Every structure is written in C-alpha cells, then in structure tokens.
Amino acid sequence: MIGVFDSGMGGLTAIKQIVKMMPNEDIVYFGDTGRVPYGTRSKDTIIKYACQDVRFLLSKNVDAILIACGTVSANAISVLREQFDVPIFGVVEAAAQKAVELTNNGVVGIIGTNATVKSDAYALQIKKINSDIKTVSTPCPLFVPLVENGFTNEDNEITRLTCEHYLSDIKESGADTLILGCTHYPIIAPVISKVLPGVNLINTGAQAAVRLFEKVKPMGGNGIIEYYVSDDIASFKAAAELFLEMPVGDNVFKVDIEKY
Ligand code: DGL
C-alpha cells in the first residue's frame, strides 16, 4: 500500500496519475487541510508537520511514501529519510529530470511556494544533471489559497491576473519549460498556459508518481483509496471529486494530526 501526503489537495495531482497508471493500487492519502499552507512557514515547522504526516501514514501500514508536496520535498526529505525506515520519494528529483529532458533552449522556469523557492532545491537538482541549464525561479504564494478556495476555472479573472503578476519574469526569461514546483499548481495549469503559451508545464505530482513506479514494484490491491484530512470532510470531498473526476465515496475521514 502506498501512502501519499500533501499540505492539502495538491497531492491529488499524484493520485490522479497513480490511478491512471496503476488502478489496482491501494492508497492512503493524507491532506493536511487544517494546517495548509506549509509554504509560508519556517523550515523547522515544515519538518515538524512532515514528520507527523509520515507517522500518521505509517500507522496505516503503508509500504512506501510519496511526498506529493513540493514544499516538504524541498525542505524536509533528507530528515524524513533519516528518521523513518520506509522508502520515501519526493517530487524534486523527478521534476528536475523531466525539465532537463524537455527544454530545447536550456532555460527552465521554476515556480513554487516561498519555502520551496528559498530552498533552491529544484535549481540545484537541475544543475546537478546539467550545469549549462539556466534557471529562473519565482515564488507564487497566492496560488495555493486560490486553488484551496476553488478559484480554478480556466476563465477565472482573478487567477489569470495573479498569474500575469507572478509570471512576468519567467516570460521575460524566454524559458521554454516551467516546473510547477508546488503540487497545487497543475490544478490551474490551463490559466498558466494562457499567460505562457507554448511553454512546457511540468506537473510535479504526476511526474513523481511516474518515477515512483520506476523504483517500486506495483504492490497490487483492490484499487481502494482512503482519504484523510485534518479539517472539514465535506469541502475536501467536493473539491477532490471535481478535480479527480471520480467519486471518493464515503472514504474521506478526519484525523487529529497533532496526536502523531
Ligand atoms: N502542495 C504544496 C506544495 O507542493 C502546497 C504548498 C503549501 O502548502 O503552501 O508545495
């Protein structure tokens, strides 16, 4: 069984890809909806929250964990790997590899939360693979609240204006590839594409799911997905069904994450 977690609903981008590739996998998803966003917090707090998230997933007996969160992957993965005896995968390596493969002009844009951009994790990973690639990074802190509050429609004017505001440097840089370095961002990818037409967008959650199955043998199961959240069940359920385009049924439960 695979455990997947994020600060909220961004990690569903990974779930969507896992279901597409391995529909029989059993998955436990945790979305920390009561404490989202993580990306505006200090590294210490991100590590503390991430350890609690992993402890919760381990209590469900998962065999491997996918951190479907750019912020946690960029700031806490080495601590998590040191502290917990379970295979742990993040989004940074997978997305950086894909960006290097996709770029033709050698300019890659990176967007993410404040904590992710501050860590420079994606840019460092890209340079490790190919030091000739130029990177341009911009934090987009308003994107997560826009997604969590449902401002996701392709024609949403507020989201479009916010994209124009944040993406001007990336546009100017001429980047032909953009890492959506926070797993919430693919949910507004159609709006981002309107502002940056023709630019390759990398869905980090989906990319990490692809990479997970290159490393871990599918475990098989009955395709049962249990969703756990740390805040209101009904609002998560509605948003999740809209995004996943499939019912989540009665499989959404509330957890007191502070206990872990
Ligand atoms: N999905 C998280 C990420 O990938 C959201 C960030 C947040 O909670 O601020 O970074």
Topology, element by element:
Layout: E1 2-6, H1 12-21, E2 27-31, H2 43-59, E3 64-67, H3 70-83, E4 88-89, H4 92-102, E5 107-112, H5 114-119, H6 121-129, E6 134-139, H7 143-148, H8 157-173, E7 177-180, H9 189-195, E8 200-203, H10 204-215, E9 225-229, H11 233-244, E10 252-254
Parallel strand pairs: 1-2, 1-3, 2-9, 3-4, 5-6, 5-7, 7-8, 9-10
Helix pairs in contact: 1-10, 2-3, 4-6, 4-10, 8-9
The structure holds D-glutamic acid.
Account of the 3D structure:
With 260 residues, the chain is of the alpha/beta class. The chain folds into two domains: 2-90 and 207-259, Rossmann fold (3-Layer(aba) Sandwich); 92-204, Rossmann fold, CATH 3.40.50. It is 47% helix and 17% strand. The strands form two sheets. Strands 4-3-1-2-9-10 form a six-stranded parallel β-sheet, with helices on both faces. It has a four-stranded parallel β-sheet with strand order 6-5-7-8, with helices on both faces. Helix 4 (92-102) crosses helix 10. The longest helix is centred in the first third of the chain and has 17 residues, at 43-59. 47% of the residues are buried. The structure holds D-glutamic acid (DGL). The site of D-glutamic acid (DGL) has 17 residues, from helix 3.
The CATH architecture of the largest domain comes to 3-Layer(aba) Sandwich
| Overall spatial form | globular
CATH class of the largest domain: Alpha Beta
Q: Which small-molecule species are bound to the chains here? A: D-glutamic acid
Number of helices: 11
Which spans have pLDDT < 50 for at least 5 consecutive residues? none
Number of E-type strands? 10
CA-atom Rg in angstroms: 17 Å
Report the average pLDDT across residues. Answer: 95
In N-to-C order, the SSE pattern is EHEHEHEHEHHEHHEHEHEHE
Strand content: 15-25%
> Portion of residues in helices?
40-55%
What composes the largest sheet? 6 strands, parallel
User: N-to-C terminal Cα separation, in Å?
Assistant: 20 Å
Enter the CATH topology name of the largest domain: Rossmann fold
Strand order of the largest sheet: 4-3-1-2-9-10
Q: What structural class do you assign from the helix and strand content?
A: alpha/beta
Number of self-contained structural domains: 2
